[in-house]
Design goal:
five-stranded antiparallel β-sheet; binds zinc ion; globular; 2 domains
């Protein structure tokens, strides 16, 4: 029986990928929630649907953790069970997801390590359940094929990258992209890999401050169809980190781009590592780094992209920089990183902080300034507030025949030293994210 003939299914109710059982006599396929995964609501019946129709809640196949770091391949694995109803075969297939600790145990053939991880971090199992899982662990270890890859699935708590360590984060990412581990999302193609790794290695570094991040993220949602030209990009190759997570799933913390005759290639990254204990966290930083690819898109020269593109927030950020809504200042890079660059004879690392250009408080009180209805600021001005932003097409170029989206004045008005006020028109700007140390202690992962 070919396991590829049976579609992978997930539960419509809880989005967990389901285990498949095949009755050897009748050939009938049944689906159950996998052993060792907490399902919500507790005790519901599985409602199978093809996996690509559901935003699946992927978990580590070995302990149930959502923080998946690796995908691995084995020869096809099926487990035969004699039950009261007859002989059943569970088809596990060939593709496996592993959290960082389980991935390490698998690659070291460490069955006891896997069991310990499951015992400590997985759900409680009775003796029979634990024995069944061990059989599965053993089968995987024995059938493992070479070539683990970095995973783009699962869910890590999003932890923004601090500006001061961005050069180090970039160097680690360039090593990962140029290294031996497989890459997801089509990035494994040798040509693409070399292109992306090379551009990250020489990338200009940008860190987008919280207000500018909020503006770009919300403006991206209504980004009109846009054809980019090289002048729209703040640099031919770059790595840009946002002060808080962006994108439709709020899980992107950075993006890199390379441009050339082939057009534009953009990779969006999620943060990895949050919530791991100190020792595995340090190993993860050494083996994988801070960032993992989450989305990848190639834009051929002249092709338009819009709000539905995985690169939408990056493009909105560029357009706002290009239309001079932004000002950039150098950021102080961590002393240890600067020294390390100096020791290896590299030029001092530069990170550019991008923030919204200075405000003009006098305009806020002038009589002619239009204000959104119901958004009258208190007097005297105790707050700053946003005016609702919208895109317009701006004519430019020879004979003003070209069009480029231009975000119309989402100004921050009011005194610069005051907090920004929530309004009925525009949602409140997010508070500054917690420092990564605190975020990892909170460990939302499990
Ligand atoms: Zn379910
Ligand atoms: Zn695991």
């Amino acid at each position: 029986m070919n396991p590829d003939d049976i579609p992978r299914m997930a539960c419509r109710t809880c989005t967990v990928p389901l285990s498949r059982y095949v009755d050897l006599t009748t050939g009938q396929v049944t689906y159950t929630h996998p052993l060792g995964v907490d399902v919500d609501p507790v005790g519901h019946d599985p409602d199978p649907a093809p996996m690509d129709e559901i935003d699946t809640r992927q978990v580590c196949d070995f302990c149930g953790d959502e923080r998946i770091a690796y995908t691995l391949r084995t020869t096809p694995i099926g487990v035969v069970a004699d039950t009261g109803r007859g002989r059943l075969v569970e088809q596990y297939g060939t593709d496996w997801s592993a959290c960082f600790p389980c991935g390490g145990h698998l690659q070291a053939n460490d069955l006891d390590g896997l069991s310990e991880q499951l015992r400590q971090y997985g759900p409680p199992l009775d003796r029979q359940g634990a024995a069944a899982v061990r059989v599965m662990h053993q089968a995987v270890v024995q059938s493992l094929l070479p070539g683990a890859a970095v995973a783009a699935i699962g869910r890590w708590p999003a932890t923004p990258v601090p500006a001061g360590i961005l050069p180090k984060v970039r160097d680690r990412l360039a090593t990962l992209l140029g290294g031996a581990l497989g890459l997801p999302l089509g990035l494994d193609d040798p040509q693409i890999r070399a292109d992306v790794a090379g551009s990250v290695a020489v990338a200009r570094l940008f860190w987008i401050d919280p207000e500018f991040t909020e503006l770009a993220d919300s403006a991206a949602g209504s980004l009109p169809a846009t054809t980019l030209t090289p002048v729209d990009l703040p640099a031919p190759h770059g790595l840009l980190a946002w002060a808080h997570p962006v994108g439709p799933r709020a899980d992107l913390v950075a993006a890199s781009w390379s441009s050339g005759p082939h057009g534009l290639r953009v990779v969006g990254y999620r943060s990895i590592g949050a919530g791991l204990p100190p020792t595995p966290l340090q190993q993860l930083r050494e083996q994988l780094g801070w960032l993992g690819p989450r989305v990848h898109t190639h834009v051929p020269p002249g092709a338009p992209l819009d709000a539905t593109s995985p690169a939408a927030v990056l493009v909105a950020t560029w357009l706002l920089i290009a239309q001079r809504l932004a000002e950039t200042t150098p950021v102080e890079v961590d002393k240890a990183i600067r020294k390390a660059y100096q020791r290896s004879g590299r030029p001092a690392p530069e990170v550019r902080l991008v923030r919204i250009r200075g405000t003009n408080p006098t305009r806020a009180t002038s009589a002619g300034t239009p204000r959104p209805a119901g958004d009258r600021p208190p007097t005297p001005h105790e707050y700053r507030w946003w005016v609702k932003a919208h895109w317009r097409q701006l004519a430019y170029g020879p004979g003003r025949t070209l069009r480029r989206p231009f975000l119309v004045v989402p100004q921050v008005r009011g005194p610069k030293d005051k907090p920004i006020k929530a309004s009925t028109v525009v949602r409140m700007l997010a508070a500054a994210p917690p420092p990564p140390d605190q975020a990892s202690r909170d460990g939302a992962g499990r």
